[in-house]
Amino acid sequence: MNDQLQPTLGAVPDVETENWLALFPEVVIGAALGTLAMVGLGNMMPGSWMLYFGWFGVPIIFVVLSIYLAGRTGVRYGLRILSPGNTAANFLRFSLSVLALIAFIEVLYLLRTSPDQLSDITWFHIDTSRLLSAAVLRSLIGSPIGEEMLFRGWLFTLLSKRVSTRFRAWHFDIAHANILTSVAFTIVHLSNGFSLGNLLIFLAVFLYSLLLGAAREASGGLLLPMWCHFLFNFF
To answer: Are 180 and 163 in contact (CB under 8 A)?
Structure first.
């Protein structure tokens, strides 16, 4: 694509806005089908290969898929990592927001924990003995890169082209494209296991995704949401 035709980083191209609610079924069905495909592919693999697929295969697939889809849909600019918005102020602001969200999630967990289990709770716990394990490396490196490229890079940018409206109430100002992206992000994480008891967890995942989308908007690139994703998974 000619660079002169590409929008400024973080900007939304001038296009006719679609009704964001009309896109909701499309996003839900697409995310659900994609999740089922990934789970089905993983279940076809024997023994330990399923673990290796989850640790290494899924992040690689996300990266390749985001590059392919961004090229097919004309939003390659959405995969830019570096941007003028990667300021120290933004990194500090969103790092503190991530830590606040983690504390909020811990409180939610505390509220649904029986008194005899309270002694087992650890706050902001880091198990240094597992830092170099394959699963942790996937969580700290593979997921922040792969998931952010696919969701905040490709999907959010594509939806921003189609929907430029925003939700504004009280002190909240959230792009509808961010809400739709967060719905897809949450559905994909349902593959970790869904139950009524996990509803609060998935609410936390949705809020977490909204924060990552806000970081994407504020910075105009993927480095800040990747950092926030890393920070969240680290604790």
So the answer is: yes
